Amino acid sequence: MQTRNLTSTLNVSAIGLGCMGMSEFYGPRNDEASLKVLDKALDLGIRFFDTADMYGPWHNEELLGKFIASRKADVRLATKFGIVRRPGEYRRSINNAPDYARQSCEASLKRLGVDHIDLYYVHRVDTGVPIEETMQGLAALVKEGKIGHIGLCEVSAATLRRAHAVHPVSAVQTEYSLWSREAESSVLPLCRELGIGFVAYSPLGRGFLTGRFQHGSMPADSDFRRTLPRFQPENLAQKRSLVDVIAALAAQQQCQPSQIALAWLLAQGDNIVPIPGTCNPLHLEENVDALRVRLAVPELEALRQAVSAIPVAGERYTPEGMKGVNA
Ligand SMILES: NC(=O)c1ccc[n+]([C@@H]2O[C@H](COP(=O)([O-])OP(=O)(O)OC[C@H]3O[C@@H](n4cnc5c(N)ncnc54)[C@H](OP(=O)(O)O)[C@@H]3O)[C@@H](O)[C@H]2O)c1
User: Pairing with 73, which of 15, 143, 238, 314 sits 20 to 30 Å away (CA)?
Assistant: First the structure.
């Protein structure tokens, strides 16, 4: 497995595993099957696992805790705090207060069954708490050894700069893929300037870029994606030509569309680490194998040009989900 440095002190496998879908959002959970996928990820060389307290809520960290205990695995664990929600409800509030960060961190350590979290993210920025105060609270957790590195999710460039002035930010985690390239305008350049790693979440466009929703098929009615503006049938229909472009290049390269989506991300900078999510062992293998796919500069440029010409209709989230995005 190739590795990448998010920062000089945080080396991770070049592809991580997003564990969110093992608990909710994309269909019913199956812990036994998920534990097998986690095992397989480890066997394939993945050493970077992504979770959050609000996935489940809490179920996802508990599941990872079971996995870590059973395999005594030496992995880099990333989790997040700051989105407060109750089981069964999507409605949330955002809380970045330092005492809440501490309380959340201690609860996550317990659920994960570890005494150290390698990368601890602010899941969404709380505009009611100055980022400087949040960073000071997190810096104290670093000093005590409870967390190794600090990350921020979906943060604006202005807030990122202020946060980094208080304590080094090691990683930004934001949605980034062939159909979500907003981070390229200011956040990615700032990450490069400040030496901050970039973790690309939903790198497969929540599955859309793999072609699985290509021929009129849609996620199940109960699936979270059905609520997203971007996944509304009229918006999806407009974007299917984007997947045709990816599929054509995949055919040329004798690989899968999912692998083109991941190879494109990996080629955007050596500080970028995608964390595709899957509950399917075959998809997991395919995603890891994307590391073998090398796109030449003209292919990368042609791909960018082709996808840029296709408008992406529909926001990434509902207004509720947009709370704290780009804040
Ligand atoms: N910081 C944040 O706010 C935030 C928000 C969202 C997600 N995340 C993190 O990012 C991780 C990844 O994002 P994501 O899960 O939303 O989206 P994603 O990785 O873009 O897509 C996941 C979807 O694609 C499918 N899939 C995966 N590999 C495939 C393949 N090779 N072929 C066909 N289908 C494939 C999965 O289904 P199968 O299970 O059937 O493979 C699942 O439905 C999450 O698990 C979570 O850890 C963070």
Answer: 143
**Per-residue pLDDT tens over the stretch 102-160:** 999 999 999 999 999 999 999 999 999 999 999 999 999 999 999 999 999 999 999 99
Catalytic site residue from 26, 55, 120, 176: 55
CA–CA dist 199, 80 (Å, integer): 13
Per the annotation, the verdict on 317 as an active-site residue is no
Return the best residue to mutate from 49, 201, 262 for the ligand 1 pocket (most ligand atoms within 8 A of CB).
201
Domain ranges of the chain: 3-204+269-292
The closest of 293, 260, 285, 276 to 44, measured between CA atoms, is 285
CATH topology of domain 3-204+269-292: TIM Barrel (3.20.20)
Quick check: pTM over 0.90?
Answer: yes
- What are the residues facing 197 on neighbouring strands? 171
